[in-house]
Amino acid sequence: MEIPSKYEPSSAENRWYDYWMKNNYFHSIPDEREPYTIVIPPPNVTGVLHMGHMLNNTLQDVLTRRARLMGKNACWVPGTDHASIATEAKVVARLKEQGIAKNSISRDEFLEHAWEWKKEYGGVILEQLKKLGCSCDWDRTAFTMDDNMSESVIKVFVDLFNKGLIYRGYRMVNWDPQAQTTLSDEEVIYEEKQGLLYYLAYQIEGSDEKVTIATTRPETILGDTAICINPNDERHHHLKGKRAIVPICERSIPIIEDEYVEIEFGTGCLKVTPAHDVNDKALGEKHNLETIDIFNADATLNSFGLHYEGKDRFTVRKEIAQELEEKGFLVKTEQYLTKVGTSERTKAVIEPRLSDQWFLKMEELVKPALKAVLETEDIKFFPKKFENTYRHWMENIRDWNISRQLWWGQRIPAYYYGDGQDDFVVAENIDEALKLAQDKSNDPKLAIEHLRQDEDVVDTWFSSWLWPMTVFNGILEPDNDDIKYYYPTNDLVTGPDIIFFWVARMIIAGYEYRNEKPFKNVYFTGIVRDKQRRKMSKSLGNSPDALKLIDDYGADGVRVGLLLSSAAGNDLMFDEDLCQQGKNFANKIWNGFRLVKGWEVADIPQPQASKLAIEWFHAKFDQTLVEIEDHYSKYRISDALMATYKLVWDDYSSWLLEIIKPAYQKPIDRTTFDAVIDILEQNLKLLHPFMPFLTEEIWQHIAARTPKEALIVAEWPKIGKNDNGLIKGFDFASEVIAGIRTIRKDKNIAMKEALELSVINSENASNDWDVVIQKLTNISSISYVDETVEGALTFRVKSNEYFIPMAGTIDIDAEMKKIREELEYTRGFLQSVQKKLQNERFVNNAPEKVIALERKKQADAEAKIETLEKSLASLL
RNA sequence: GGGUCAUUAGCUCAGUUGGUUUAGAGCGCUGCCUUGACAGGGCAGAGGUCAUUGGUUCGAAUCCAAUAUGACCCACCA
């Protein structure tokens, strides 16, 4: 059968993915082997594959496949996250297109639509992961709103409530007026925006005097309930105890004093709006101020907004500024750079808002999680620098607002039975709730229909923080076989952007619910950026279509492309050229295989050169394997790939195959052939985690294999004896080869023309490698001589001198120039070494080993100089 | 405002407890080669005052300090 000269990925990829699925290699069940577990960072159900996912999941697949090859019971659990805000927004938008308003349908009807949506689109991203080659255990695919997941969430909520860690509070929270829900502090992104600072003059009550304040939000004056000055500010002492009149609404408000006010900022006078600013709220509580909320839930003004009622806050800002100016209250405006909080999901400007919400007390929960990372190193971060970020957040942690005013998610299991602040119970189901409510209210006649469940759901992260446990049902059945076997998981691969949202909270939950870490190592990937260092995003349109990339370069090519430049924790500048490099590599491997496959095998003696080359490659392979293992142990995946790349491209293809290659249309001896097939198979194993499809394809081409013998479940190579002498000998020989090639190049001597080589072997180098040198450079004979050969081109390796006699004239000047240049360099080098050795303090203080090395360098350089001088003399 | 990290070849990055030839890799670049695995290839080559300035040391890309530039994280100055 003719093998095409170009590797065609698309058919192979589908074929082998189906084969792997059919033979159940991805599926894991507990057995006597050591487990290796990864839980996927569940992408949003609304998501489509982007470059970040590609990188992230390629890394997970590399780790999983390698673990599998190493004989571990590898289990990579896939799944998706219900992403309440994002998904609810999409469903709302879709309903709107169909002419249905969310508030016109019931909660249950809405949820039906949402589930319908999930059924339709929820699997898209997982299907895309298959295209990438991800070897997830699809039988275990989970979703954060699966029944057992939701039950777990409720159970945990009730438990934390009963422990006194969850409480209900009337607090200032981050309100997203577009999604109409609260957000946690972590979901608020601060963006710098150019705005205006308005200076407004308030009339002092009962006088003609005025007081000027500065604000960025003039529309909130309608909610003002005080003006605050710093008691140490002498400019304003005359205002103490007086009252001011708020413009437009003409409310009389007190002038209070507090050191919180910065004397330097603005005019040193602050307007206080307790309903719409966290600091103002604190002031309000301290000074017992009235709280006036002027906004509706969608951030339009309510009746306190007077004639602005019903208008949006930003419209009002413009209009009220105009009115204030017309009425003479506006003193001036200044350009002002301010930080505005926006919603991570909807991008809407966050409104601080007072409302009843559920909070989780973090202070105690955090302690074991902090210790595990920073003290005991039970959990290791790669790269380590993120431990600082983690520490900082954990040590300054605030209570977590876990309630969201949404429908898509786990509904808060609180049941109200009366109108009092305290008239509620928390229970896993309504029957439990009824019993508790009857007890608490002392009213045995209380019935189910009297109970109203809280309308809110919990934050999405309140379900995903349990993910490493709930995917193995470890909350509902804490003693089941899966959780006992797979937990704690081994590696977590994720982005540093969710270190607080998710990573930290999983660690907290792990210690609280299993008294054990959720994972041993966390590998933080970088952010994928484009060549101009811009973050890849939909709005910029700079994110390539993942599936198109796979079409163009093959999944293996894309995987290699992504991994080539992704040191842990460093952002990665993605460039399609890297995928091209990956594709080229795949083709190189393919052709290396094609060459070997095309050879005719005969029972003839093994050439000495082949024997030596194979021994050398074994040594080189062992040496590289040590390197690769070291890289993996430090999660330096891109270095592990590069080491493999060089082994296969340079050592295997460029050197080994060239040395053993039989003459044109001549057969190869069986011994060499068998050895090279074995070597190819070992290489394929190292390559498989990076390039699963291509390697399986070649593996199965080499020989007919039963499913048990598939590459995906082959045995990872063991580290061998690593013979250094062979590697040194080869390195020396390769320098000789390069010298001869350079001469051929310079003098334009075709490879067909055989040359002779003479050598003055001052280095006493072994002649074992002569056969290899001869084969690769078409040297007919190598003779060992004592004296300089006249009329020859020369080159030197260390202090060995090589001669290639030339029939024609030798350009003496050029030869001399070359030698002089070498001489100059070597003398310079010798000088620097001598300078060190002549320094008494160096000789006295440096370790023995270092001095010996310097002496060796000196001797080598001196020998080389002697050789060069002799050659030069012979030319004169 | 506080903090973390970076700065090495045209680009992307290694350089592990200071000493392994006068600093490496991949890509790119420049020449030449090209019927017998692969032009998605081969061979050879050019290219760096290791951000700057001081300091410690026998010895610094590596340790320390300051400066500059950039990135990220945290923080309630209207």
TrEMBL record:
Keyword set, alphabetical order: Ligase
Domain of life of the organism encoding this protein: Bacteria
EC number from the UniProt entry: 6.1.1.9
Name used for this protein in its record: Valine--tRNA ligase
Taxonomic lineage from the root: Bacteria, Pseudomonadati, Bacteroidota, Flavobacteriia, Flavobacteriales
